[in-house]
Amino acid sequence: MRDTSQLAKIFGDHTVAQLSSARVLVVGAGGIGCELLKNLAMSGFHSIHSIDLDHIDLSNLNRQFLFQRRHIKLSKSQVATAAITRFNPRVRASAEQANITNTQYDVDWFAQFDIVLNALDNLEARRHVNTMCLAARVPLVESGTAGYLGQVTVIKGAKTECFECQPKPVERKTYPVCTIRSTPTTPIHCIVWAKDYLFAQLFAESSDEGAMDVEETAENSDELSALREESTALAKLAGAMGTQDFARLVFDKVFDEDIERLLSMKDMWVQRRPPTVLDFAALSEHTGFDPAHPDDHAVLEPKEWCALFVHSAERLAQRRLAMDQSTQSGLVFDKDDDDTLHFVAATANLRSLAFGIEQKSIFATKAMAGNIIPAIATTNAIVAGMMVMQAILVLAQRIPECHTSYVTYGKRARCIIKEPLAEPNPRCPVCRRRYLTLRVRDCAQTTLGDVLDFVKGLDSGRDLQLGDDISVVEGTRMLYDPDFDDNLSKPLYELGIVSGKMIMLTSEDDDDGSIVPVVLSIAAAKSQDSLAIEGFESVPIFAPLPQLVSADAESDDEDDVITDDFVVDDSGAIVLEDDDVVTSPMIASAVSSISEELSKRKLDEISVISQDDTKRRAVSDDDIEVLD
What we know:
Layout: H1 5-11, H2 13-21, E1 23-27, H3 31-41, E2 47-51, H4 76-87, E3 92-96, H5 107-111, E4 115-118, H6 123-136, E5 140-146, E6 149-155, H7 177-181, H8 187-203, H9 221-236, H10 246-263, H11 280-283, H12 302-325, H13 338-355, H14 362-369, H15 377-395, E7 403-408, E8 415-420, E9 434-440, H16 448-456, E10 470-474, E11 477-480, E12 502-507, E13 518-524, E14 531-534, E15 549-550, E16 561-562, E17 566-568, E18 573-578, E19 581-587, H17 593-600, E20 625-627
Parallel strand pairs: 1-2, 1-4, 2-3, 4-5, 9-13
Antiparallel strand pairs: 5-6, 6-7, 7-8, 8-20, 9-14, 10-11, 10-12, 12-13, 15-19, 16-17, 17-18, 18-19
Helix pairs in contact: 1-2, 3-4, 3-15, 8-13, 12-13, 13-14
């Protein structure tokens, strides 16, 4: 039985009672997640639900200490929750092996929890959970690690910055198009080709020329033109998707026809090793290999790579066809999705085979394709401990005492830096929204026009304040605006708008940004009404946006000092410039030496939130505490 007397001495008996009754959601059961679940169970939390999509791998065992060798291939969340109940039998722990971005985890599902703790390792899922917590009005403790670096912060709607309030640094490695397309020389070249070109062209939402995200210049225009032609040829293969010939047709296109075309360019191979055409018939001979259960740590034989290619291509084709029928968007590469990982690994290694390049195991491909940064068990433990401390303060309604903490590594052997939570960015595209819940009785019978008529007819006390010219957007799709009304008569289900989805309503008349968009979370009805809206009483009041001032405007103060990044006048005020527009006033103390040190320790977006505060708000020396 866990003794909570020490916690009671620190936080009080009332807070300890709150912890035992609080419903906690932990998203992720990996490096941070294992430490976090253990800490929660040993700190008086009794109701814990864990969700994670991944299985336990051999490589996890050196830092995810709730797992043992006998657990390999089992669900991370289920094994982890079973372990913490042995630590503390009073814990009521439950688990799911699923993707948190699935629509079944809608706003009602998130709202059942008192707090959410993120222990994720990818940006897409973090952004999704951030949005869902804002919509459900549930506090979120966000975390991340990258080697020796770590970070923890608290996100509370209308009170603190959300995950999207500050842009995340993106460090993209780029490769010449000609190298990726025609003359690969290293395994990463083949992996980039398999992931960002072939997979994207076949299974992603669109198959345009932007799949590899490269800028056209005079030097690469010919290569991009040829790449577009190849993309068009691949797009034509979509008609065979779901047939027995699909995998063979793709194989013949990229490993036979395309290589034959490259070999016809004799001058290209004068000083290079020419590639070899691969024979599908020879490589597809039966070997007894089971492509459904490959050895992730072994470099497979060519015939085994071919079998894995066929198996994964057929599975992805079926999934893509199912998405077309449900009006969902295309597939996205996920290193934890076996089908997408196996397809990229197989095609990359077959290309390596053709070009005489070293082949890589599935595990090594996963690390390279997913940009995985090595994890340090000690950093995970420190971050998980800080998360629990922040969660206790949140549940005790002591938000002002919460802070953002950084685990850093540099001149000091090890230190933790903390600073006050920042206020929401007034121009944030995510939290400067009015989040409401739209309850729909039947998405198959309710049309988009019905929804628009309903929201326009709300009484004055619940007016959405969007005016008459409303636009409706779902994700990146424009569903309706005054000049595009093709979807008004279509049922929501036909448009892919079902429970768990969100639609955003904006105003066409919003020239100065004064109108706050409305995000409607679609949820199941709780009454006989065909449509109902909830949440007006909890919507914050947003202050008017500060007026933008052009950076080209003439200054009335001749004493202003102009720098490349900001303007400092004689009062000590700093005004930052961003893309020729002045975006926010700051105080000169933001350029303190401690802040400069913080900005140098910016963490990568894959694992953590940006901590570059030098250029975003007032920070004084007293705001930051350095702990040895």
